[in-house]
Specification:
mainly beta, elongated, SH3 type barrels, six-stranded antiparallel beta sheet, TF_pelota, Pelota/DOM34_N
């Protein structure tokens, strides 16, 4: 893989989540779908909130693997334009089984390449 390239991954079983936990690192960028609560204000001043599914790309700062739930929580700042989330705003993406995510690294080392099977 070239420097700065990305790969789409879909964890299909709990062991895949463990591999993802060991693959994702601070400084990587990660893109995945998420649900955000969005509050809209009308011209009369009343507000309504809706849950909106959107795709975010974050610069990874921290991650936490919940073994019991099989969920990898990846925290970082939004680094791509999005109608619901400001640039630079913090967000946590929950990576779950059978949900695709895209991981980009500046440098893919031998260990990372071996982990994804390239």
């Amino acid at each position: 893989m070239d420097q700065g390239s990305q790969i789409g991954l879909i964890p299909e079983e709990p062991e895949d989540m463990w591999h993802a936990y060991n693959l994702v690192a601070a400084g990587d960028s990660l893109r995945s779908t998420t649900v955000r609560k969005v509050t809209m204000e009308s011209s009369t001043g009343s507000s309504t909130s809706n849950r909106v599914r959107t795709t975010l790309t974050i610069s990874v700062e921290d991650l936490d693997f919940d073994v019991q739930a099989g969920v990898l929580r990846v925290k970082g700042r939004n680094i791509a334009e999005n109608p619901y989330v400001k640039m630079g705003a913090y967000h946590t993406l929950d990576l779950e089984l059978n949900r695709k995510f895209t991981l980009a690294k500046k440098v893919w080392d031998v260990v990372a390449l071996d982990r994804i099977g390239n």
